[in-house]
Design a protein that fits this description.
Blueprint lengths: L1 E6 L10 H11 L1 E6 L4 H13 L4 E5 L12 H7 L5 E10 L7 H18 L3 E6 L2 H13 L8 E3 L6 H10 L2 E4 L9 H9 L5 E3 L21 H12 L3 H16 L3
Parallel strand pairs: 1-2, 2-3, 3-4, 4-5, 5-6, 6-7, 7-8
Helix pairs in contact: 4-5, 5-6, 8-9
The structure holds zinc ion (ZN).
The site of zinc ion has 5 residues, from loops.
């Protein structure tokens, strides 16, 4: 059984029914997924799907960096965070690559989301691009306020340095690898992945983006998370079944799922 810890099911809707995507995932053995929020519509869909697929789909709610520019509705995420099936606040974080003009507003929103997670006792699913130092500074301050930093959260779609990985691990965070790990030129990232201890590894697709090899360039979907597990298995000299078991157990621990 595989656990895809980062899916954007709201981005599929126009093209194909969510039911079909989830059915294909289950057929492939991907029996658990964390549906990401990040804006009011995505949050509502994630909560709704978690209600429709109990034990299979869990929800994350929050406001991502795209929301920083237009006076975000913090109360909305706060009220949804208490819904059943919500197991994380996400995705949230900083992106200085796509949104250099809103850096200050992004930091403010990120801090508000971390505060919401702390209040709700939920782990955070973090996006960070070209913002390593600020991400670390805010996560360091956040982790210090937690009674149980082992459930602080995860850095999703990790592509950072070994130094960044170490800093996050020291704070108690998990590290989640996506299909990028399967790209032939991702040698450095593959080396960093070997450095992450077994009990802190997660896998994800970040679908519909970033399809792993051999689906690269096509639309990604949860069923393909198996390719990420296979790559980790190859790098670590394990079987993909072992990697499935390890990463699923880790996701369940972090997200408080039996
Ligand atoms: Zn994402």
């Amino acid at each position: 059984m595989y656990f895809d810890t980062h899916v954007h099911l709201d981005e599929f809707e126009a093209e194909e029914s969510t039911e079909a995507v989830i059915a294909r995932a289950q057929e492939a053995g991907v029996n658990r997924m964390l549906a990401m929020g990040g804006n009011p519509e995505a949050n509502r869909l994630a909560v709704e799907l978690a209600g429709r697929y109990p034990g299979i789909l869990y929800a994350a709610v929050g406001l991502d960096r795209d929301q920083a520019s237009h006076s975000p509705d913090l109360a909305d995420s706060a009220s949804l965070a208490g819904s059943s099936g919500v197991r994380a606040i996400g995705e949230i974080g900083l992106d200085y690559h796509y949104h250099p003009e809103t850096v200050a507003a992004q930091r403010k929103l990120f801090e508000a989301m971390l505060e919401l997670a702390r209040k709700c006792g939920l782990p955070v699913m973090i996006h960070s691009r070209e913002a390593e130092e600020d991400t670390l500074a805010l996560l360091r301050a956040y982790a210090q306020t937690l009674s149980d930093p082992s459930r602080a959260g995860a850095l999703h779609c990790f592509t950072g340095s070994r130094r960044m990985a170490k800093a996050l691990l020291d704070l108690g965070f998990y590290i989640s690898f996506s299909g990028i790990l399967t790209f032939p030129r991702a040698i450095e990232l593959q080396e960093v992945s070997n450095y992450v201890p077994e009990d802190r590894l997660l896998i994800e697709t970040d679908c519909p983006y970033l399809a792993p090899v051999p689906h690269r360039g096509k639309r990604n979907e949860p069923a393909y998370v198996i390719r990420v597990a296979e790559k980790l298995a190859e790098l670590r000299g394990k079987t993909r079944e072992e990697m499935a078991r390890i990463t699923t157990a880790n996701a369940c621990t972090l997200l408080n799922i039996e």
